Amino acid sequence: MLRALLPAASPDLSSSAVARWPAHEGATCPRCGAFEGPGHGPGPYPCRICAAAPPSFDAARSLFAYEGDVRSSIVAAKYAGLPYPVHAVSLRLREALAGQWKDLIPDRAPPTIVPVPAHPWKYFRRGFNLPALIGSRLSRHTGLPFEPLALSKTRERGPQALLPGNRRRENVEGAFRVPRSRNVPSAILLLDDVYTSGATVEACAHALKSAGAASIVVVTVARAVP
User: Containing H/E element for 23?
Assistant: First the structure.
């Protein structure tokens, strides 16, 4: 069933092509980062969903809309094993962190990059975890610490990609934990490839804050749009 998600044609993944991917520059929710149409940057008030039920994380931002070559490249990497432009994408993320997202990274308290983990069986089947690949390269580009084992996924009920929005939160509830031997960084940049319903990063943030994290900023490559 997941093969049905694959694009009909392979996208251009050259560095020059990735450099032309259009970043979202419109208005966003200051809390969850939801794309909100015309405007520029975070608005003064949270969106309706965040106002009613604030997420466990402190802020979230996504660089691209999950469509076109951005979507095709992620789907092809995760479900067909094709190479992903990790270097070029991490450079785009570094530019955003140094530019329009610079207020997310306090100078006195640089966060540790923590990738959203894959379940062990999924990792061994694919041979990689895309958020970890991007996070490792982003760490090299920015100098931010990288801790890929700060969080683990202990349960896999089914692929999030196949579930409707109203079932995604239930699917990942309690699925992530901090290993007992790990000291949780105080400030965390939680990195994922796609923000869809927010259920995965919410479950991760809840586990990290329960273990002692003080602040969590979520950064994703892309965000699903209606």
Answer: none
pLDDT in tens, 152-204: 998 766 555 555 555 566 667 778 999 988 899 999 999 999 999 999 999 99
List phi, psi (to 5°) of 10: -75, 135
Rounded distance, CA 44 to CA 41, Å?
A: 10
Helix, strand, coil in percent for the chain, rounding step 5: 40, 20, 45
Least confident span in 17-26, 106-115, 154-163, 177-186: 154-163
Query: How many angstroms separate the CA atoms of 83 and 201, rounded?
Result: 24
Is 98 within 8 Å of 63 (Cβ atoms)? no
Question: CA angle at residue 125 from 135 to 114, to 5 degrees?
Answer: 20
- Cβ neighbors of 15 (< 8 A, separation 6 or more) are 85, 87, 88
Residue ranges of domains in the chain, CATH in brackets: 55-223 (3.40.50.2020)
The span from the CA of 183 to the CA of 97, in Å, is 25
AA identity, residue 184: V
Side by side, which strands form the sheet with 215-223?
59-65, 215-223, 187-195, 112-115
Coil, strand or helix at 149: coil
Given the structure tokens 């308290």, which residue do they identify?
A: 109
